[in-house]
Amino acid sequence: MELAARADLHLNSVNRIEAGEKDVQLETIEKLAKGLDCKMSDIFSVVEKQK
Asked: How many domains, the chain?
């Protein structure tokens, strides 16, 4: 719930993203990065490492 609030996103959206049920637009990734206090590139790096 805290991430959703910090990222200015609805909790259901964050839950669906975490579950892999929702496609994510760049704007949403930017909001998530701000909520996580990181760069968008950090998020992409984590995703790339998981492949």
From this structure: 1
> What pLDDT digit, counting tens, does each position of 7-51 carry?
999 999 999 999 999 999 999 999 999 999 999 999 999 878 887
* 23-34 per-position pLDDT tens digit: 999 999 999 999
CATH number at residue 27: 1.10.260.40
Q: Are 11 and 1 in contact (CB under 8 A)?
A: yes
6 touches 34 (CB < 8 A) = yes
Domain that holds residue 21: 2-50
Residue pair 8/33 in contact by the 8 Å Cβ criterion: no
